[in-house]
Amino acid sequence: MIDWTSWMDYGFMKMALAAILIITPLFGLMGTMIVNKKMAYFSDALGHSALTGIAVGVVCGIPDTNISMVIFAVVFALLLNKIGSRSTVSTDTIISVFSSCSVAIGLAILSKGGNFSKYSSLLVGDVLSITKKEIGYLVIIFIVTILFWITCFNWLNAICIHRALAKSKRIPVQLMDYVFAVLVALIVMLSIKWVGILIINALLILPAASSRNLSVNMREYHVFSIIFSVFSGVMGLILSYYTNVATGPMIVIIASVIYFVTYFFGRKWKE
Amino acid sequence: MKKKYLYTAIMLFAILVAGMGLTGWYVSQTQEQTDGQELTVVTSFYPMYIAAENVIGDADGVRLENLSEPQTGCLHDFQLTPEDMKLLSTADVFIINGGGIESFMKEVAEAYPNLKIIEACENISLLSGEEDDTHHHEGETEEEHAHGDVNAHAWMSVSAYETQVQTIADGLSGADPERSSAYQNGAKAYLEKLDGLRKRQEKLKQEISGQSVILFHEAYAYVAEDYGLQVNYLLDLDEERQVSAGEVSDVLSAVRKGHVKYILAEELYGKSMGDTIRKESDAKVLYLDPLNRGTYEKDSYINGMKKNMEILEEAFYAKDH
User: Fold this and answer.
1) What is the longest distance spanned by two Cα atoms in chain A?
2) Mind telling me which residue stretches traverse the membrane in this protein (chain B) (predicted)?
3) ipTM of the complex
4) Within A111-131, where are the H helices?
5) CB-CB under 8 Å, B15 with A257
């Protein structure tokens, strides 16, 4: 029989667990609003922009790529919002343009001299890359997000339901959009190194989507989403440790299983 | 209403049980016996494993393990997996190639300060990484290049490999004096076999030394040196390496200018480039095995080297006769 506690002997696993316990509730929380606002594609594009962020950091010689990634993602998110709200073409076209453009720039810079393999761990994530400093960043973003949620959730929800009506109620619609986009950018960037670019979006979307299959009101929607997110995060981490696979994909597989079960049975359970 | 919560809890519990059950089953299938072993030796990748395997030979109470290296090439940019960290935490001796190939060594040395590390390359003067002026790497500084500024693929040269084997044997004897004679005997037997290989190489060298070649893998610089071949151009094709059109034309002009007849490439990553070159010029592309992965048999290094020699012999003799 295997020893289900042996993973706790390792410093990097404790670090990873701490990171997951901090970040997965945020994924669940932000996911609800991303799904409501139909921004799934937006957060996906943000994830892809991490490549460019790192590339910019490498070019500018910034030693801590976290910083360049975060700065770039925030700029990217703001720009995307700005152009998206002005342009006459639909948002998904704009996002697609931005996303592929930034991926191309990132790939071009990082692949120069055949160096891309050095960064390929970014694509699937590397749980060993979590450091104490990053946990510090995560704690800060956790506090900021919770505060934002407590104070601004009603506004966000109102904007989601009816934009024009919210505006007439003097809700700062534009500002809320920007702040939300920046927060998503920060969360995505700070967890991308261990989750991986290819699947980070799944972590934002799946718990909320599963929760939508079940819930009938906002409170349930949030609670289920957070539970699913934390559950798949912790379980994915531990299973990935024993099966020796990358952690990000394992988490996403579990989150997907939850999604499909709720998809097929959710309607029956609601009755 | 309440039923929904119950069902959700049941679902999560079922997933938990199923996941743990499957994992438990999987782990019990793959778990190895580790009791009764006194010394655990871990090697960083394939050529080191084969060398250590031969040195250790039948010595009792030694467990030899390899890191879960990537199956795709050299371990240039390999990241340690949690499994590797677990393995290293049980290790007494860690045998690495050195020369900067193990880019993760800093992490390992920090995490396990008591681990005895044997660097197989320490007694070898490595070739420099910038083998040729035409080798394009302007966009990066030396430290950024995965190998640092040396070419660490020393195992591709039989004589350097012999030095590595001896270094490993000496290192193991130092770490584990009790089995010292077993290690030295193992090394001696293996070195004898390698000497046979080297004699055959010497013979071939007399025939082909001085020929111009182009290399598609940094590792073959050692092959070229062993045979006294003249390297006109080196293009380090590797996993996920994107070749630009400019490089293709550089290679082609080097082929024409230097009247190069032979190109040494690795099948896995050099194939598409090799096909292009063959179509565009009359140079012959020889696919050698860089011996950075393969089966874990004791003789697989020697067999791989023999196969490489046969390819070279066939190509160069065919032209002469």
Assistant:
1) 63
2) 5-27
3) 0.78
4) 121-124
5) yes
Asked if A268 contacts A213 with a C-beta cutoff of 8 angstroms, the reply is no
Q: Out of A2, A10, A258, whose CB is closest to B24?
A: A2
Distance of CA B288 to the CA centre of its chain: 13
Q: Does A164 touch chain B (CB under 8 A)?
A: no
Per-residue pLDDT of chain A (271 residues; tens, 9 = 90+): 567 777 777 777 888 899 899 999 999 999 998 888 888 888 888 888 888 888 888 888 877 778 888 888 999 989 888 887 777 778 788 888 888 998 898 888 887 766 666 677 777 777 777 888 888 988 999 999 999 999 988 888 898 888 888 889 888 888 888 999 899 998 888 888 888 888 888 889 999 999 998 888 889 899 999 999 999 999 999 888 888 788 888 899 999 999 999 998 877 776 6
Instruction: Inspect the interface and report whether the beta carbons of A242 and B12 lie closer than 8 Å.
Output: no
The residue of chain A with its CA nearest to that of B19 is A239
Task: For residues A186 and A195, give the distance between their C-alpha atoms in angstroms, rounded to a whole number.
Answer: 14
Of B83, B138, B240, the CB nearest to A120: B240
- As a three-state string, the secondary structure of B82-95 is HHHHHHHHHCCEEE
Q: Which long-range contacts (CB under 8 A, 24 or more apart) does B145-148 make?
A: B145/A113, B145/A115, B146/A115, B146/A117, B146/A118, B146/B76, B146/B77, B146/B100, B146/B103, B147/B76, B147/B99, B147/B100, B147/B101, B147/B218, B148/B99, B148/B100
On chain B, the residues whose CB falls within 8 A of the CB of A270 are: 4
Q: If 0-12 CB within 10 Å is exposed, 13-18 middle and 19+ buried, where does residue A42 land? A: buried
The DSSP output letter for B177 is G
Per-residue burial over A232-246, b = 16 or more CB atoms within 10 Å of its CB, e = otherwise: bbbbbbbbbbbeebb
Domains in chain A: boundaries: 6-261
CB contact (8 A) between residue B239 and residue A117 = yes
A residues 126..155 contacting B (CB < 8 A):
126-128
- At A130 the three-state DSSP class reads coil
Find how far residue B282's CA is from the centre of its chain: 31
Three-class SS state of A64: coil
How many Cβ atoms are within 10 Å of A75's Cβ, its own excluded? Answer: 15
Cβ of A10 within 8 Å of Cβ of B236? The answer is no
Superfamily name and number for A6-261? ABC transporter involved in vitamin B12 uptake, BtuC (1.10.3470.10)
- Domains defined along chain B, listed by start: 39-194 (3.40.50.1980), 209-320 (3.40.50.1980)
Instruction: Pick the residue from chain B with its C-alpha nearest to A261.
Output: B11
